[in-house]
Structures are given as structure tokens and as C-alpha cells.
């Protein structure tokens, strides 16, 4: 505690000294060095101190270099590069100033800057082979591949007998030939680099990366990567593994390894970018967007990244819409396929009169709380997507239902459903939709009823109607009540839908609902796997819904958390003024 107070006092004094107009620069650098010993890594106090001294002495290279390094520590790499370039242009005959700017541009994949500044530096230092090497790298990504070859040819005049530099030049030639899709020449160049190099780690990882991106000789790439142990497992090592996993569709392995990579490497924006691609290919759109957004925070140089996030956000929005429609279809009992009436119970049950079972379901359909709250943890999957999300639900019986959907703890969709209106606020895209309930019927052919969602969530009999003549299905293993007779189910007569309600073995709760339609080939099954008594009401603890269609299988599960009954809560949904209608 005493040390912390001393540090705080020294920091306050240091800020005043660094802001001084009279204190000489060399003394300020001593003060800053002392601060650097107290604070390491990402730190606001050190960043502020660095900014203070830079604002007053920006033309001094040592000051600029210190500020650049602090900015990088604080993940402000674009600003760091901007200041490094200013320092290089202000100190044009200082090779170290150019080296600082070029190292940042190369490390963080600012290849257009690398190409431009390396060529500019060559005007002042034409005999430095490293500058030709950097300029060639920039030329590759500027699509000036022939110029890249010419730059290396010019630089080789100054390598002399430096075999390691020669190896790196051959490695760069390999990158150029792979960019030109002249893979045989590229492989020859990389093999030459391996023969010359004393320290082969950079060649191993770069060679493996080029092979994995091109998806050729993948066994060779794997062998090269196996040669690399800590601490030689650099960014290219993890990226190469990521591309191999992407091409082989071994997404789980790639995701696991890249998650290790973002912890093991410092400049990891591009690893997050590729990690997002793997999550997306796996179907986990929410995790893909989360990884890409982290890449954006880390200032990835992928110019297409923001567009990629935007497009996948739209896709995610479409997926959520599909989930909502999926739930609507289920709760409206509008489709299904006739299935075998005998379900999974293996033990014959005692006979119970049809009248008692119908009476029990009739009673369950009326046992609706005035207020309800829960948090649902869900996973949705189909042939394309695999999305995990959470939903906070507040309900006021027969009046309104409010749902807040979150991904990775970030609120994404805020929804209010009333008997007359469906309102959804999209927080990602700053837009909203507000439609009458006839919108779903017009758009999707679904005659939506607000009360059916309540019944689904509360584990009640969906669309129960005491005016329908229900029948008990003769099934010795289950207590089943159907909205039509067993004979007509098998004949698949012309009813719009058939609902079967499966009661628990003690007949006290609803265990399952199956919805069938003779008109199509889709089947819906709703399961409830557990119940708890909350304030006198038997509420589900978990369940799932499965929809089988001719073209796909859709599945969503849900687990209830922090459920409360008849504890009134405010239901409120505001649409920010700056939001427009969703397209």
C-alpha cells in the first residue's frame, strides 16, 4: 500500500515535470525512464506521460521512438505507424528512424506503406540489403510481382557472403513465386533458403504458410510446422495451422490452436481474423463476428474486414429471424408430419380414462401466472448455422412479452410482442422493425398468436381449445391426447394440423407435444425434461424443439435460469431516435 502511494505521488510529480516548458529534454527522458520502470505493458499513465513529452519534442527521434513503442503496447498500432513515419521523414538520414517505421509496417501488414517507405529509404541508403527485402515484400501485396523480383536482384549485390541474408532473400523469392502461382519455382526457392539458413525457423513458418494458403503439399507443410517448438512458434506458424484446418475442414482443431495463438503472440489481429473464418465455416456466426470484431479492435489491416462483419451481421440477423419464425411456426401448430404414435417409454403404464387426461390438460391450459421472468440459455443449429445465445424474458399474461437476446454477453436484439404488435430493435445495425401481427401471416403464411409463445415458454399445452373433441390415443406406453382420432391420423385426412399432447407418467405435467400436418412432410417435437415448483406453478427447467423438414433439420434447446413467478417487472422497449427502419 505504501509503495502504491509512493508511485502515485511520483506519477503526479512526473506529469508536471514532463509538461514543463523549462526542464531540459534529457532530464525529461530520465523522468520518463523512471516511469517506464514503474509501469510496464498497457498502461494509461505511461501513455499519457509519453504523449506529454512527445507533444513538446516531436522532432526528436528518441522521443518519437519511445512514444511509438508505448502506443504499440496500448494496441494503437496505426497511430504508432503514423508517428514513426513522421519521425523517419523528419530524420531522413537516420537509418534507425526508417527501420522503426518499416518494422511496424511489416509486423502489422501495412504493405502499401512498407512498399512506399522502403523505396523512399533506398534513396538515402541504397546499399542496405534489408531495404530491398522490405520493398519486395510490399511489392508482393501491391501486385507488382516483377518489380519485387527486380528489387531482390538489386539487393543481392550487397549481400556478399552473408548466407543467412541469402536464405531470407530466397525465402522472399519463394513468396513471390507463390503469389504468381508458379509453385514449382517457389518450392525450389524455399528449399534453397532451407539449405542456406543457419536459423531456419522463419523459413519453416513462412514456407508452411505459403503451402497451406495454396492448399498444396499439405503434408510437407505439417512436417515443417512440426520442426517449430517454443519460442519459434510465431504468427505464421499459427496462421499456417489455421489455413490447413480451414482446407481440411478440421475446424475444431484449428479453432483450438488459434485460440492458443492469440495468447502466445503479441501482434495477433490477423490470427483473430482467421479464427473468425474458422468459426464461420463451423457455423458459429456469433463467435465468428466476435473474433472479427476483436481483430478490428487490434487494428487489423484487412481492408475487407469491416465489410465481412457487416455481411455476417446481416446473415446473423437473418438467422435470428429464422429462429423467431421457427418458434412462431412451432407455437402456432401450423405444420408437421405424422409419426409413429408409440414413443420412447419402455414401461407399460396403468390405464387412465380419457376424460381424466383431457380434464388434466384443460386444467394445465388455464394455469397461467400473471407475471413471469426467466433467463434462457439456448443453442440453435441447422445444416448451415450453429449459434449459442441467451434470452432474458419478461411476460405479463395475455398482455406483453419482452425478450432481450444477447450474444457473447452483448445485447443484440430487443424484442416486444403484444397481441397486436411485434417490435424488434437491432442494436448491431442501429435499426428497428415494428409490424402488426398480420405481418407474419402475410410474409410467412403463419397465423401468429401472442398467447402461443407464452404457452411454449411456460410448458403449457399449445393451442389447447376446450371446444375441440379430443381423443385418447391407444398407446400402452404413453398418456397421449390427440386433436383427432388415431384412424384419421393414419389416413392423413384434410385437417390443417394435428396436435398430440404427451402427459408425464403421473399425468400432472406436460412432457411432450408433437405437431403434425397431413399436408406436408415436416415434423415438430417439443420436449420438456424437467420441472420445478415456483410460487405454486410447475415451470420447466429445460427442454428442446426439433423440426424435421424434407431439406433440413432444425434444433433449439433451452435451459431456464433465475426463474420467478408473479414478481411484477417493468416491460419497456424504447426505439432510439437515431435508428431507422431495418431493410
From TrEMBL:
One Pfam family per UniProt: DUF4292
UniProt keyword terms in alphabetical order: TPR repeat
Swiss-Prot/TrEMBL TPR repeat ranges: 269-302
Transmembrane stretches, start-end: none
Protein name, per record: Uncharacterized protein
Organism whose genome encodes this protein: Brumimicrobium salinarum
Lineage, highest ranks first: Bacteria, Pseudomonadati, Bacteroidota, Flavobacteriia, Flavobacteriales
